[in-house]
């Protein structure tokens, strides 16, 4: 009985730790996605398309290089990086669609290069935290609801949130074969 109680306490503590880590990860992702209004506004002002294949390729390559340096398997991390890019583009498209009907007034977006630096920094922080969590084996399907409920960004839909979480479940550490 004593061992059972200790096991239960350990599991409860572990669940609390997991929830806190997932909430923190969701908050960093919220902050990153929060810059999409500026990105969309800058691109709209300068008649640039939302989709920038060259920039996306740079982001994917640098993210996967960093992921490997942090001990994450690149191929299992790729869907997560792409899900973030797709969510970011979806938010940008939705802002631009809204502005067709109701233009944004008395607001100026930050310059794209400044915003991209901030996004890159947050992307790195997200990967670092993800690597820590994966290293501790802390991401599980039971955390979906908490993670999704803490992703609260304008123009980020439930389907986007679910895809982001599902892609997190795929991330794996580097195997010994890859070292």
TrEMBL record:
Gene3D superfamilies named among the record's database cross-references: Chorismate mutase (1.20.59.10)
Isomerase is among the record's keywords: yes
SUPFAM superfamilies in the cross-refs: Chorismate mutase II
Entry EC no(s): 5.4.99.5
Pathway in which the depicted protein is active: Metabolic intermediate biosynthesis; prephenate biosynthesis; prephenate from chorismate: step 1/1
Keywords (A to Z) from UniProt: Isomerase, Signal
GO molecular function: chorismate mutase activity
InterPro entries recorded: Chorismate_II_sf, Chorismate_mutase-related, Chorismate_mutase_periplasmic, CM_dom_sf, CM_II_prokaryot
GO biological process: chorismate metabolic process; salicylic acid biosynthetic process
Sequence ranges assigned to domain Chorismate mutase in this UniProt record: 24-95
Signal peptide: 1-20
Record carries keyword Repeat: no
Pfam families on file: CM_2
Enzyme class, spelled out: isomerase
Protein name according to UniProt: chorismate mutase
Organism annotation: Pseudolycoriella hygida
Encoding gene (name): pheA2
